[in-house]
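Running this now, will post back.
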Amino acid sequence: MKSETIEELKRSLIEKWAASEMRAGIGVSGGPDSMVLLSLLCGICKSEKMRNFSVFVLTIDHNIREGGVSAQDSDFVLDWVAEQKKLNPDIKLYAEKKTFEKGLVDETALKRGKGTEEAARFLRYKAFEEFALKHNLNVFCTAHNKNDQLETLIQRFLQGSSPLSSTGIQFERGIFFRPLLSVSRQEILDFARDNKIPYRIDATNNETVYFRNKIRNCLVPFLDEHFEGWQTGVLHGAEKLEDLTASARAVTDAATVTAKGKNKAELPVKDFTAFDIGIRIQILYKAFVQAGVQQRIPYQAVKKCAATLAMSSYGVSVAVCGNSLVISYEPDFEKPFQNVSRKMLAQNESLFSGFFMIIDKCGSYTLHKNLEIVVQKEKNDTSFGPFDFPLVIRNRQSADKIRSADGSLKKVSRIFSDWKVPEQLRDEIPIVEAQNTVCAVIASWCGYKDWLVPQKDSKNGVYISMRKL
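Update: finished.
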């Protein structure tokens, strides 16, 4: 596909929008994707057919990167827009900058328990929606491209996302529109070069600290080198999954969920129980949103709730009241943690429910109010090991690392981030240490995974099992 495709896209958008007055918003970071899309919309503004077309630009300073780099990016966007208006005084082009308060993204990540990337996206889209409402926009454009779609599909697959979200990014969802979704990143770069469109590069995109960047910089190049045609296969698979899940999505969207105040939602219990478990789970997620739940609720907990019609954990209460299933959320569940920075949590591992236990003989031990550990010589279906005495069972420390399948060491803090474990649970998860080496991270008891590295050379090892109290 050649870069002329973007010109074809421009013509199709003119045809799509020419019939009526259009007020289009766009989120612009200053990177090549959003700058090319902004240039495209400016070109539409100049068309004789589009005299009733207005473009409203929102650029956001997330206030995360050091040295004011993100502020420089957003200022670059404002300067470019000002230059365009100077060159073309008649075009209807407007721009605003929004700066997030310092620390807001980290605080939101802590509250939602889903990581910095997700928190930034959550805040960004909230700002987009407010901007669209403020300016009475018909559509708000974002610059997602084909490569973004592929990375999203891989990410959701690796994270075990539900089938409804595993279909990838939608061309249109509510007010949001993604015109470049079928255009590759290379086509965009070629178009920017050929048309002398300036842009800025976010240096953090080349780092592999964030999960999404690992996919982009490590996994995708490996797939390109070793699996020819994988991109087509992934995109076609997503299209088939979209066709398969369309009816389930329609049923979920049509389900009646009524918000009752700020932190409560209800739905008819008779209608809810008429669906199978899979649909019930999706409706519950919808109800959680209506009730104002922001943090991640583990899938297994939601699945159990869908079957039993009851839940009392993670600040969420679900119960049958008369003819209704009532979902209530208690925001105070998170308040003790909201004023504690992530760095402080990492450095003060005993701040909340810290525990430290040296075990040199078999028996049962209570770690904290939620968990009991059993150490025994015999192996059973729920135990893991073997490990040699003495064992240390404790909560996390900031420097903890554990061996990966490839032999490399991985930070336990990174594992928690990848699993999306809320900060308020991380100090409850046992770390098992044997022979001065971290050999297990036990999180299955609270709906996550276990990370186990048995001592292969153990001769008189013991086995460990956990029981939730």
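The chain has three domains: 4-143+178-206, 256-333, 340-468. More later if anyone needs it.
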